[in-house]
């Protein structure tokens, strides 16, 4: 299973390379342009995938080598990380091919797997030396970005299939922001102020603010301010939780 995690961590950037070069169809930017929503981020936000993929590969190497090969926590999360990485890789060609409904199921499943893995690592942070750097950080970043990306994907799927009105998107977009807020604040509290998880999510929310600020869709300005407010609240919650837990789980693990 550990070797599978490593192989799948390598598969994600390889699939992304071909996906961005049109091997499976239009790239993400082109598809997003076809289905504009009030819950879409500026293009720069997706550069975070490069960081996530790099750290995931380093995690894949780390967990498959040395004394970590016998660690019970890494054994426990190996199926979760393997599934999360596999689903992330599968999502990219499916999205390029326009299978939005399947993509939505896939990205939610990937989120569930990696968020669960991040929670397990948080709970076991003090038992596995330096896991906060080599395991907790990459898994948490991936889960944080997927938390936002899943709702971006949901909004695009709603528009693509016409499930809800596309001329007046603000009411249901607000509902999506409420759902996203509930997920982010719950998960961040559950992980006692996970700065990596919250940082990735805040990055996405700021990118939504930037995109919607210059968007001409009805309700875009309101959506922009909601996204920015949520980012601020999430950051404030993280600071408070880390103070409450005397530096948070990272400080505990480092000692």
Characterization of this structure:
The chain has one domain. Helices cover 76% and strands 0% of the residues. The C terminus is likely disordered. It has 255 residues and is mainly alpha-helical. It is built from 10 helices and no strands. Keywords: Membrane, Transmembrane, Transmembrane helix. This is Seryl-tRNA synthetase.
Q: How does the SSE layout of this entry go?
A:
Blueprint (H helix, E strand, L loop, with lengths): L1 H19 L7 H7 L13 H16 L8 H25 L3 H24 L7 H31 L8 H21 L4 H19 L6 H25 L3 H7 L1
Helix pairs in contact: 1-3, 1-4, 3-6, 4-5, 5-6, 6-7, 6-8, 7-9, 8-9
Count of individual helical segments = 10
Count the strands? 0
> Distance N terminus to C terminus?
29 Å
Count of domain modules: 1
Core attributes:
255 residues, transmembrane, 76% helix, 10 helices, membrane, globular, single chain, mainly alpha
Give a brief rundown of this model:
The chain is built from ten helices and no strands. The chain has 255 residues and is mostly helical.
């Amino acid at each position: 299973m550990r070797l599978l995690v490593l192989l799948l961590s390598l598969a994600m950037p390889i699939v992304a390379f071909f996906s961005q070069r049109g091997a499976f169809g239009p790239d993400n930017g082109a598809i997003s342009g076809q289905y504009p929503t009030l819950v879409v981020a500026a293009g720069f936000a997706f550069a975070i995938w490069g960081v996530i993929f790099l750290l995931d590969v380093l995690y894949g190497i780390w967990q498959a080598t040395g004394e970590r090969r016998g660690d019970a926590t890494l054994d426990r999360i190996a199926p979760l990380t393997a599934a999360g990485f596999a689903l992330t890789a599968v999502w990219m060609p499916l999205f390029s091919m326009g299978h939005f409904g399947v993509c939505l199921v896939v990205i939610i499943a990937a989120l569930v797997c990696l968020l669960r893995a991040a929670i397990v690592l948080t709970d076991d942070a003090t038992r596995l030396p330096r896991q906060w750097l080599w395991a907790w950080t990459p898994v948490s970043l991936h889960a944080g970005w997927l938390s936002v990306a899943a709702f971006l994907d949901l909004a695009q799927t709603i528009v693509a299939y016409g499930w809800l009105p596309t001329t007046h998107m603000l009411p249901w977009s607000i509902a999506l922001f409420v759902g996203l807020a509930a997920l982010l604040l719950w998960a961040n509290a559950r992980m006692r102020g996970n700065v990596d998880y919250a940082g990735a999510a805040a990055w996405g929310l700021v990118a939504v603010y930037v995109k919607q600020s210059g968007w001409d869709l009805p309700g875009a300005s309101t959506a922009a301010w909601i996204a920015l407010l949520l980012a601020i609240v999430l950051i404030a919650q993280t600071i408070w939780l880390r103070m409450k837990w005397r530096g948070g789980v990272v400080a505990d693990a480092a000692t």
